[in-house]
Fold this sequence. Notes:
By secondary structure, this protein is α+β, with helices and mostly antiparallel strands.
Amino acid sequence: xxxxxxxxxxxxxxxxxxxxxxxxxxxxxxxxxxxxxxxxxxxxxxxxxxxxxxxxxxxxxxxxxxxxxxxxxxxxxxxxxxxxxxxxxxxxxxxxxxxxxxxxxxxxxxxxxxxxxxxxxxxxxxxxxxxxxxxxxxxxxxxxxxxxxxxxxxxxxxxxxxxxxxxxxxxxxxxxxxxxxxxxxxxxxxxxxxxxxxxxxxxxxxxxxxxxxxxxxxxxxxxxxxxxxxxxxxxxxxxxxxxxxxxxxxxxxxxxxxxxxxxxxxxxxxxxxxxxxxxxxxxxxxxxxxxxxxxxxxxxxxxxxxx
Length: 307
């Protein structure tokens, strides 16, 4: 039997909003499988669809650099949040993002690229020696357009282009560049706030759609609904699901009375040409990295004893 820890129960509660005992029961029933536990709760009607969320633990900064019709986003991790306020570390992340624009968003290429007399790998090592914390370039991504603009937004910004969440959005259009860039920033802000899983239903992972269908069908099958009714309920439920996870179907945060697709259509008259979202990248600091919870008081006490 899997060891169900209080940390696992807490994480499941944060993802689903279900009660503590329900979360513990779900984890017990599913052998500690977090995703299966979410589905178990939903089938029991005890939780809403959990947002796509990783276990955030790592510190550091997200950095963004844009130039013309290209944009790059990078994540550089460190051990503590204090480092994010360090000018030397901020300069390092900016330099890494700028190098990404030159050589492309490939971590290996970025690490080997030169910035002045040093490679990025050497610059990271030098910064580690000066600050005294381990640091890593975890990932990088880029977007570009042939015609149009790259919109960008950084949330919880500590400096220009640096923060805890970074978003790039690519808009293909023959319209006015200035207007497109401004619109791109608004869409990037929306992505930062809502964290969509795909641009539209057609680009969603088929496995994700099938899983949602199964959860909905099993939930209403357990309630004794006939199969022909279940089929209609699932179809309606999927439309609601798409509004939650597909960018173009989501209520636009700047004007919730319309969805993002409608907002883009309205903007076309101002831009002077059709607009199409061709891609987006959303980096949240530390997403998908698990770190064991620490007891700060115990760490301080241990440090005092060893000194």
